[in-house]
């Protein structure tokens, strides 16, 4: 059996059994390493060596958590909550609540989409925006699995389709690696080729909104550090906006989320919204909020390094190619499923492209797929697994915001819903794209 398949399945099964994701990743790495022929000592060595690769990511998320709490003290989130509460309807009519739910879902979806392309801050907005809104979600009895699905859609679909922000990076990696593997393509063709797969994501989102999580769900009103009432003033709101702009500008200029978060925190300090004697405790609380993501990302990097060390990632891709023969339909399906397994193992759709392109591009040429169909196959295969993976920041980010009051389970309330609603349609619509383009 292939070590990648065994390790990913072990990690997923343990996660579904409510074993902590970090422990599931460590156990999966050990099982994968031993299955792949590594000794226990070598597996541990490679795993621990891989932890350093995500140190910057972990520190970035910790500082973003601190920045989120700092922003909350300016009163901006409370202003947003008061504004949204005002839309709910004073006499609680069902019609008013329906309109409010629709407005909230649309605003969150727009913010998630903007975070990938227009304002490329990725998941940094979630701990700022979502925790203060939990009390509003509770009032409207919104199923948080719906919000998780909306957020994850906004974190994945835009970079797959649109060639700006993170999408520009994804498209550039795709075009470069396809060219290196023997197929020159025009980057302008990528959005057209990925239109059908993204349509699958849209179908999944609509099913989540109008079918799966349409019914009300009851939550308790628990006090959360981020939603404690902070008085807001015009000056506080101005400084909070300046802090967000400063954080974004610093992140874009220096290419570092760490510097961006630090710049934002310093602006809030300068505003006087946080007193020096309170700063340590508040920032520590914020870091705790995002620490879970940091530890999962640390473990995910170690997990990925162990799988790479076994050599079974390339073996899995090659075995799939050998089993396909000349069957185009089977070939497209096999490549998509392998992409799903590799991305869930590696933890990044961006890092999956170089691994699969070297085999999938020549195989697509051999099977007679057009360049557009090949773009759809490789692009979809890489994107599969980003939504629905326990170790992906596209699922970790929504959980960090929605679980601020400990009423949202990462696996069953974020990972499983997003896996079902996005990976299955992606495979179906990606396969259709491969066959018709």
Automatic annotation (TrEMBL):
<dbReference type="GO" id="GO:0005886">
    <property type="term" value="C:plasma membrane"/>
</dbReference>
<feature type="transmembrane region" description="Helical">
    <location>
        <begin position="121"/>
        <end position="140"/>
    </location>
</feature>
<feature type="transmembrane region" description="Helical">
    <location>
        <begin position="367"/>
        <end position="385"/>
    </location>
</feature>
<feature type="transmembrane region" description="Helical">
    <location>
        <begin position="256"/>
        <end position="274"/>
    </location>
</feature>
<feature type="transmembrane region" description="Helical">
    <location>
        <begin position="419"/>
        <end position="436"/>
    </location>
</feature>
<keyword id="KW-0812">Transmembrane</keyword>
<feature type="domain" description="Na+/H+ antiporter NhaC-like C-terminal">
    <location>
        <begin position="150"/>
        <end position="431"/>
    </location>
</feature>
<feature type="transmembrane region" description="Helical">
    <location>
        <begin position="332"/>
        <end position="360"/>
    </location>
</feature>
<feature type="transmembrane region" description="Helical">
    <location>
        <begin position="98"/>
        <end position="115"/>
    </location>
</feature>
<dbReference type="InterPro" id="IPR018461">
    <property type="entry name" value="Na/H_Antiport_NhaC-like_C"/>
</dbReference>
<dbReference type="InterPro" id="IPR032813">
    <property type="entry name" value="Na_H_antiport_N"/>
</dbReference>
<protein>
    <submittedName>
        <fullName>Sodium:proton antiporter</fullName>
    </submittedName>
</protein>
<keyword id="KW-1003">Cell membrane</keyword>
<keyword id="KW-1133">Transmembrane helix</keyword>
<feature type="domain" description="Putative Na+/H+ antiporter N-terminal">
    <location>
        <begin position="2"/>
        <end position="88"/>
    </location>
</feature>
<dbReference type="InterPro" id="IPR052576">
    <property type="entry name" value="AA_Transporter-Related"/>
</dbReference>
<feature type="transmembrane region" description="Helical">
    <location>
        <begin position="286"/>
        <end position="304"/>
    </location>
</feature>
<feature type="transmembrane region" description="Helical">
    <location>
        <begin position="190"/>
        <end position="211"/>
    </location>
</feature>
<feature type="transmembrane region" description="Helical">
    <location>
        <begin position="147"/>
        <end position="170"/>
    </location>
</feature>
<dbReference type="Pfam" id="PF13726">
    <property type="entry name" value="Na_H_antiport_2"/>
</dbReference>
<dbReference type="Pfam" id="PF03553">
    <property type="entry name" value="Na_H_antiporter"/>
</dbReference>
<keyword id="KW-0472">Membrane</keyword>
<feature type="transmembrane region" description="Helical">
    <location>
        <begin position="232"/>
        <end position="250"/>
    </location>
</feature>
């Amino acid at each position: 059996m292939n070590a990648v398949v065994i390790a990913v399945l072990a990690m997923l099964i343990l996660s579904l059994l409510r074993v902590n994701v970090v422990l599931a990743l460590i156990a999966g790495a050990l099982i994968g390493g031993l299955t792949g022929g590594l000794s226990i000592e070598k597996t541990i060595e490679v795993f621990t060596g891989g932890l350093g690769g995500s140190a910057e990511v972990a520190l970035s998320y910790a500082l973003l958590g601190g920045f989120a709490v700092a922003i909350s003290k300016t009163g901006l989130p409370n202003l947003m909550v008061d504004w949204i509460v005002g839309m709910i309807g004073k006499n609680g009519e069902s019609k008013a609540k329906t309109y409010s739910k629709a407005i909230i879902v649309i605003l969150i979806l727009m913010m998630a989409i903007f975070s990938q392309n227009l304002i490329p801050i990725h998941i940094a907005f979630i701990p700022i925006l979502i925790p203060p809104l939990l009390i509003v979600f509770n009032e409207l009895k919104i199923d948080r699995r719906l919000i998780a699905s909306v957020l994850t859609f906004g974190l994945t679909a835009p970079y797959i389709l649109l060639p700006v922000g993170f999408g520009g990076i994804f498209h550039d990696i795709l075009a470069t690696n396809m060219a290196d593997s023997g197929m020159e393509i025009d980057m302008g063709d990528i959005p057209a080729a990925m239109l059908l797969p993204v349509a699958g994501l849209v179908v999944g989102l609509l099913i989540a909104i109008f079918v799966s999580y349409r019914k009300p769900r009851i939550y308790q009103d628990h006090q959360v550090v981020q939603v404690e009432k902070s008085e807001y003033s015009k000056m506080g709101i101005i400084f909070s906006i300046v802090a967000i702009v400063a954080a974004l500008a610093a992140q874009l200029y220096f290419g570092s989320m760490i510097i961006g978060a630090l710049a934002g925190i310093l602006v809030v300090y300068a505003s006087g919204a946080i007193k020096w004697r309170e700063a340590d405790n508040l920032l520590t609380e914020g870091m705790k909020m995002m620490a879970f993501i940091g530890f999962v990302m640390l473990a995910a990097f170690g997990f990925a390094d162990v799988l790479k060390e076994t050599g079974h990632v390339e073996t899995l891709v090659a075995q799939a190619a050998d089993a396909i023969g000349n069957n185009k339909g089977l070939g497209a399906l096999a490549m998509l499923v392998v992409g799903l397994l590799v991305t869930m193992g590696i933890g990044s759709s961006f890092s999956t492209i170089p691994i699969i392109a070297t085999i999938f591009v020549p195989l697509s040429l051999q099977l007679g797929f057009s360049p557009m169909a090949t773009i759809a196959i490789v692009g979809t295969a890489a994107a599969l697994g980003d939504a629905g993976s326990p170790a992906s920041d596209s699922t970790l980010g929504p959980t960090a915001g929605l679980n601020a009051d400990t009423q949202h389970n990462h696996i069953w309330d974020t990972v499983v819903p997003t896996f079902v609603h996005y990976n299955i349609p992606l495979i179906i619509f990606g396969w259709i794209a491969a066959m018709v383009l």
